[in-house]
Amino acid sequence: SARMFDLNVNSYVDERMDPVKSTEAACMYLLYLYRIFNDWHLVMAAYNAGPGVVRNAIARSGGETNFWKLYDYLPEAAQNYVPAFIAATYVMQNAADHSIKPAPSAISYLQTDTVHVKDQLSLSVLSAEMGISYDVLRFLNPTYRRGVVPKSPDFYALRIPQDKIEEFLKCEKTLYEKSAAKPDYHDVMANTGNTNNRIKVIHTVEQGDYLHKVAIKYGCTVDDIYAWNPNLNGDLDIGRKLTLWVDTNTYNKLQEQQRTTLP
């Protein structure tokens, strides 16, 4: 779905984490699904499981379009997702009646604004040079997966406190220079996707796979997976082949698991 709505996903940037862009994309996708199913319960089921899965469930049920009557024909995840969404909606609308209060936020979005970053910028450098909490910067900018705004032919938007905008513009060049010289940034880049002393394996994407699940199974990171699969854009289509490199211990465990699951 990220690809459908032009959300940029790579080893440095994940625009699915941008609260504005991801919300806009989700709204467009929900509207698209509503045009297909004309029923909000089915829309939420399709949002979770995919429109094809819901269509197949409708066909297997003999044409049933009531979610609750279609329930047994849907995957367990979709069965649980719709009631959970209804419950979350109820809680949001009736929080005060149940003494539920929002968790305190590090900073209000109304107290922030965006600047255009034209070169590589380390959030830790920005934090140290401008006296902005690193945790606040990460909270405001979850898009930048490594705590670094990468260099771009155009620019990337960075959200910072409003009262720091003028200071940023004055010391922008210095921030870029110090970010480029920051050694830990280069160390992270060099180590990501490392294949030294590792064994190459191919993983075939199965139903229910997602990047973090695959990374945990093979003892690597999501950034490694992106580095080893340059054409990966964030979507894991069933049947897709992923190139992975595992250490010897992980490889031996995988081989043992394969032997024990063979008939």
Explain what the structure shows:
The protein has helices spanning 19-37, 40-49, 51-60, 67-70, 76-93, 123-130, 134-140, 165-180, 183-191, 211-218, 222-228, 248-261; strands at 112-117, 121-122, 148-149, 156-161, 199-204, 241-246. α2 (40-49) crosses α5. With 263 residues, the chain is mainly α. The protein folds into three domains: 15-98, no CATH class; 109-190, no CATH class; 199-258, Membrane-bound Lytic Murein Transglycosylase D, Chain A.
List the topology elements.
Blueprint: H1 19-37, H2 40-49, H3 51-60, H4 67-70, H5 76-93, E1 112-117, E2 121-122, H6 123-130, H7 134-140, E3 148-149, E4 156-161, H8 165-180, H9 183-191, E5 199-204, H10 211-218, H11 222-228, E6 241-246, H12 248-261
Antiparallel strand pairs: 1-4, 2-3, 5-6
Condensed summary:
The chain has 263 residues and is mainly alpha-helical.
